[in-house]
Amino acid sequence: MIEIRGIEKNYGKLRVLDDVSTTIEKGKITSFIGPNGAGKSTLLSVVSRLVNQDRGQVLIEGRSLTDWDSDELAKKVSILRQSNHMNVRLTIRELVSFGRFPHSKGRLTKEDKDFIDRAIEYMKLEDIQHKYLDQLSGGQRQRAYIAMVISQDTDYILLDEPLNNLDMKHAVEIMRMLKKLVRDLDKTIAIVIHDINFASCYSDRVVAMKDGRLMEEGETDKIINSHSLGQIYDMDFQVTRMNNMNLCVYF
Amino acid sequence: MMDNKRKIVILTLISLAMTLAFVFWGLGPTNWKFFIQTRLPKVAAIAITGAAIGYSSLLFQTVSNNRILTPSVLGLDSLYMLLQTFVIFTFGSTSRVAVDRNLNFFITVILMVLFSTLLFKLLLQRESGNIMKLLLVGIIMGTLFSSLSSFMQMVIDPNEFMHVQDRMFASFNRVNTDILIVAMVITIGALSLTLKDTALWDVLTLGRDNAINLGVDYDRTIRRMLFTVSLLVSVSTALVGPITFLGMLVVNLAREMLNTFRHRELITGSILLGILFLVGGQLVVERVLNFSTPISVIINFVGGIYFIKLLLKESVG
């Protein structure tokens, strides 16, 4: 379990996170939703030590983030951010191999290679694994990055808008794959997501944020209703039930 | 396509052949003693400089995540010129600090390392990973140092200016054996202490966020790298003069030839190319141009052409 306690973060005079406390429960998919600039991505960055908070603390399995050895933490928590600009030419396989760095320190063993193969297979990248990243479409590149995170093999996986650049087919594939990761391998996944319907259909818990504050959190069914969503996004929502799923209509 | 091992072997052979040609070309039974005595220290100085420049430039490009920068943007070259100008301006070209090469070397190296350590301490401790700010401050300091030295060069006695000018260009003709050994020890020491980190540097090419995610202690690694860079640049500059432009040339050529992100291979390639260029340049200076041009003019000329090519290519791609 990841506990987030009273996190505050300021950029100059702008307060992007204001006393945010919540938990990411083990063995579940938690979606972070909210309008642009709500602080969702910053919160994930704080949890994964990419950004230092000004106040508050993050506990990962009961131990404060600052007490974790960076090396050990890299085997426990992984994060994938939205933009991943790189200055080098890498093939998919080389990128995915980097995911094994916390375990292998650059010397890949047979076991590492198995993990890499499996991650590539998981994301259906076998045929193009020797292609360079700059030759890929946005969706393929996104899948390659997710494969890197999978080969890192951490208990907690944080994903910042992983559905960016993906068409419906690939977006659904990725969400199904995440569900499978949780079910088969007992992973815990936290995900920042903009498409409310994806959040509604695939996540166990939803954390809603707005203007750097936590608005609501709880089981998905409790948050996905027209009243709550209307308050979070300042617009009208209609939630209908179809095939056992809550779907939002807001067009 | 040749694999990289093969390319590195070929590169090694070429640089070795070039070095041997440099040492033994034109030796006769009567003059060999004299020539060996002058040429061997030169070859050693070239090897040290080539290694230091290739290595530090590659590390610096990894730190800054930029392929067309050299450590000179940290202002170390300009600081060297300022120190030399200042010494000749205030104490005169016949003073001990100017004439005694050992003393001059140590003072220069210590001040340069001190300056850069201070710069890193002040800028990196407060904000994690703000490399861009560091580079900006480095450029500003560099400009300040150059302006100060040109001011002194304006008002200095013309005869003294000749001595200043002599130090504005890199040269292997006035290398002194005592310093050479010190420089060699520092360079080899820095290399062997940091070479174990090559896998970490590979990860750094993925950018700060990915590196931290993969468990790299980013701030510490960056500080270590920058310190190594400043040490190597200071030593090589104090040894032969400002020559960091060479770094841009050899590192990019190594990248183009080897087409990899692996630092282990890139380091070997950059160092070998550095030696190749310096020995080749020195051969041209001594045997073709009869010492009429300093080697840095040749290197800056070749490097300048390559730089323009690089910019044109980047803007098209």
Spatial extent as radius of gyration of chain B: 20 Å
| Average residue-wise pLDDT of chain B | 85
State the separation between the terminal residues of chain B, measured CA to CA: 23 Å
Counting DSSP H or I runs of 4 or more residues, the number of helices of chain B is 14
Helix content of chain B: over 70%
Q: In what range is the share of β-strand residues of chain B?
A: under 5%
Strand content of chain A: 25-35%
Average of the residue pLDDT scores of chain A: 88
Distance between the termini of chain A: 37 Å
Secondary structure tally: strands of chain B: 0
Shape of chain B: globular
Provide the structure class of chain A: alpha/beta
Q: Give the beta-strand count of chain A.
A: 12
User: Hey, which two chains have the biggest interface?
Assistant: A-B, 30 and 23 residues
- Oligomeric form: heterodimer
Explain the overall architecture.
The complex is a heterodimer of chains A (251) and B (317). With 251 residues, chain A is an alpha/beta fold. In chain A, 35% of the residues lie in helices and 28% in strands. Chain A contains ten helices and twelve strands. Chain A has helices spanning 40-47, 70-73, 92-98, 101-104, 110-122, 138-152, 168-185, 196-202, 220-223, 226-233, and strands at residues 2-11, 14-24, 29-33, 55-60, 63-64, 77-80, 156-160, 188-192, 205-210, 213-219, 238-242, 245-249. Chain A has a six-stranded mixed beta sheet with strand order 6-7-8-3-9-10, sandwiched between helices. Chain A has a four-stranded antiparallel beta sheet with strand order 2-1-4-5, with helices on one face. The longest helix of chain A has 18 residues, at 168-185. Chain A starts with a strand and ends with a strand. Chain B is mainly alpha-helical. In chain B, 79% of the residues lie in helices and 0% in strands. The interface between A and B is medium-sized, with 30 and 23 residues.
